[in-house]
Write a structure and sequence with these properties.
The structure is a homodimer of 498-residue chains. Chain A is an alpha/beta fold. The first copy, chain A, is built from 16 helices and 28 strands. The first copy, chain A, folds into 4 domains: 208 residues, Rossmann fold, CATH 3.40.50.12780; 64 residues, no CATH class; 96 residues, Luciferase, Domain 3 (Luciferase, domain 3); 96 residues, GMP Synthetase, Chain A, domain 3, CATH 3.30.300.
Chain lengths: 498, 498
């Protein structure tokens, strides 16, 4: 991949680091990566070993990913925003052979703890040439590529906490390359694309944008942090064609002086307000028209695309050609269309499991190899996916499985409901009963019977609440509803084990 | 792939057979394929077994390919135009477990020879329901999919004769699916695409068009034979968006009555004459603008695309993201840019070898795994590929390798040259000398010194002819120049062994 890429695209620009102004074309980039791999080999990196990147956005991320892959090793891109304690856990979990870091991304105390371990450290822009990233590249011979199967691991990305600790999703070479190819196709990207990574590359969405740009021979720009004015300046100077930008940032750009937002004409964007649309080029790719999909880190980003085919009933669109999808029941069996269950995924882009987590892998994969996404969805009669919500806890009533998220979604549609949470209360006959805690909007009057009646009509009758409690607020931990507190306050309990 | 496809695209039209008018949507198509696989299983088809399709274009081809793949078996799509003797050889070579055939595609004598072999026959549209394709599908249970690695064989396509006999290129699942995805992207195809297969599906180009349409959820139409008027009628009736059509057919369509060529507006076509362009929709996809590339059956079609990136010096464009390319010397080493050598390919879409041909595989693959394409090319300084010609014989002079095709290409550029062929003559000192046999255009005068001088300036001096012979014609076998006859006529010989 790399060698051919260097020869395929040659003097086309490959990467640009905004802070340093360092630019490399594809031929130079390929040479750097071969020497970086040569350095890795010289310090003993072997097939299956782990390399860590700990820092903000930089071309290093792409260089390290490809260089590690060249030797059959794996790159872990770490969240530089996490706490020292989390970072300590993650580093022990990875047991890496090489750590490449940016100044300020690693607490001194943690660095001190690790100094006696057999692990090689490299720092981006260190004054000490014995551990400086650029010096390592400059002084190394080029390494040859180790032949690896297409389902070999190439990337580790940490995802949501399981039992209190994050776990790293293993992503394969084929997941990276194939997802990049098909995603670039939907976005209409080619070697004229100039993509600015201004959001963190430890998130799969930005990383996929960057990889897709790389795979089609486009130009990847990296910036650690850019406020709206700085972003406008970069877009204008480098004729950026694509970046990850959301309405709040668009608003801030619209508030800038007209002179500061000149020169955004190269940027392709989904339509927003007329004054925004006048500044940019409206993205008329399939993706630009319907930029939605369901995915997660463990599926290398999008597993469904609303850009595939005509719009359907389900807002998340159809599964990509690289995956299969099943809506699963609690036992891992497949549910028919129209029923809500856990979204299951299988295929080229789906992670084969979590790094060193056999106990989680047993839970998150069925015997048939379906990945349990921990999200609820429904496959509509037209083949599209409706996303219901995170799976959360299961309520068991009369041998039926009830997902609070589905009932909550149903009740939230009632006029006058501000917020809602659903719990299970112990029931001597049915094991559990459904109880809804509803926060009405100010001035709204809702009664219990109306809520129950609405649910009976909208979802399966056994899922309707047996009781509705009205409250002024819902207890939260941060942004998330605190279901344990709800159970204490409203007599929840009797949940099925496991 | 199949199950998901049936659910992803549901009631979108999947296939239409023009002769019978049979149409199936994706859900029905998936059910048919599952039952076809069920029938295959019931007659004992196992992983690695071979299924043969012998007939003209029909939806069966797609159904058989996916059904065989579902059981881990392989489909061989045979050329129904080949002679009885060739067909006999191919059937023995394949040793198939199942043969599905169309009436008229198989000589009775060959059928009689095979009747005692343990091989199950199925005929499209047989009146005898015990061996009828549709009856087999109707009566079978659905088969579950066997999990197979992505580099497992799924397709066998016979290619050019080696030592007098054709050999089947093994093509893998990943070659089929990935090539289809990236090719569909370059063509701008999606589920609104309606493709008419009117050229033979045993050719990789048409088969790839058909597969790409299938993978993106488009509509595949199959016709055994269509004259220009019939083709126009199909395009108009079914709103065909794409088909394989070349200028000679365009000319014939332009000669039809205006009424017969009404309704071609849905057809996307590369630009041709103004009167043609007025009838169709000009294809503005990347592919439509530059529909060229280098490829062969063994690379599942295109391995390079001129649609990738800006136009460059080499007319064949850049290698696809799914392959690596090397220009190889005789020993399998890699030549630098600008030098002519054998085009070598490696990667996801490249065949791992020929079916049951270890002796050919040793010749056609280097120790490093490069496929030797038997074609000559040059990688230009901008990364693009120039195609020089079939490799043909090698001339050896003063330890240098000289490919006649390169010298011929050079001489053909001289004004007044109608045709040229280059041979090697024995040379006591240098092993061989280059001799050009030139056919001048009527009335043209060319002299030997001018030919030699032109070559000295245009290509490496050691490749220039030592002698030039002028002739009225070149001996041919069919369309091909008969080099053995040239050697006899013009004292060729002394070629290196092997």
């Amino acid at each position: 991949m790399l060698d051919e890429h260097g020869r395929r695209w040659r003097d086309r620009p490959a990467v640009l680091e905004m802070e340093s102004g360092r630019r490399f074309d594809y031929a130079a980039f390929a040479g750097r990566v071969r020497r970086l791999a040569g350095w890795m080999e010289s310090v003993g990196l072997k097939q299956g070993d782990r390399v860590v990147w700990l820092g903000q956005n930089a071309p290093c991320v792409l260089e390290l990913l490809v260089a590690a892959g060249r030797l059959g090793a794996v790159l872990a891109i770490l969240n530089w925003r996490q706490s020292e304690d989390e970072l300590r856990f993650v580093l022990h979990d990875l047991d890496p052979q090489i750590i490449v870091w940016q100044p300020d991304s690693l607490p001194d105390s943690l660095r001190a703890e690790w100094k006696d371990r057999s692990c090689v450290w490299l720092c981006q822009d260190s004054l000490d040439s014995t551990c400086d990233y650029e010096s390592a590249i400059a002084g190394a011979p080029e390494a040859a590529a180790v032949a690896m199967p297409s389902d070999a691991a190439q990337l580790l990305l940490y995802t949501a906490a399981f039992s209190g600790r994050p776990a790293a999703a293993i992503l394969t070479r084929q997941a990276l390359v194939l997802q990049a190819i098909q995603y670039a196709a939907l976005r209409g990207w080619n070697n004229r694309t100039t993509y600015l990574s201004a959001t963190p590359l430890f998130h799969v969405a930005t990383l996929l944008d960057c990889l897709a740009t790389f795979v089609v021979g486009g130009h990847n720009l990296f910036v650690r942090h850019a406020d709206p004015a700085a972003m406008c300046a970069i877009i204008a100077a480098e004729k950026v064609s694509d970046t990850f930008i959301l309405p709040p940032t668009m608003e801030k750009i619209l508030e800038l002086d007209a002179s500061a937002r000149n020169g955004l004409g190269s940027l392709r964007s989904m339509p927003y307000k007329p004054e925004w649309n006048a500044l940019v080029t409206i993205d008329d790719s399939l993706w630009g028209k319907r930029p939605y999909g369901y995915g997660q880190t463990e599926t290398m980003g999008y597993a469904t695309f609303s850009a595939l085919g005509d719009p359907g009933k389900g807002g998340m669109g159809r599964p990509s050609p690289l995956v299969r999808m099943a809506i699963l029941d609690e036992e891992g069996g497949e549910l028919p269309d129209g029923e809500v269950g856990e979204i299951g995924m299988k295929g080229w882009t789906v992670s084969p499991g979590y790094w060193r987590r056999p106990e989680i892998n047993v839970q998150r994969y069925t015997a048939d190899g379906w990945r349990r996404t921990n999200d609820l969805g429904r496959r509509e009669s037209d083949g599209t996916l409706s996303f219901i919500g995170p799976k959360g806890r299961l309520i068991k009533s009369a041998a039926e499985n009830i997902y609070p998220a589905e009932v909550e979604r149903c009740i939230a549609q009632i006029d006058g409901v501000a917020e809602v949470a659903v719990i299970g209360t112990p029931d001597p006959v049915w094991m559990q009963s459904v109880r809804a805690i509803v926060v009405p909007k100010p001035g709204a009057t809702i009664d219990e019977a109306a809520v129950i009646d609405h649910c009976r009509k909208a979802i399966a009758s056994y899922k309707k609440p047996r009781s509705v409690v009205f409250a002024d607020t819902l207890p939260r931990t941060g942004a998330a509803i605190d279901y344990a507190a709800l159970d204490r306050l409203y007599e929840g309990g009797g949940y099925p084990a496991g």
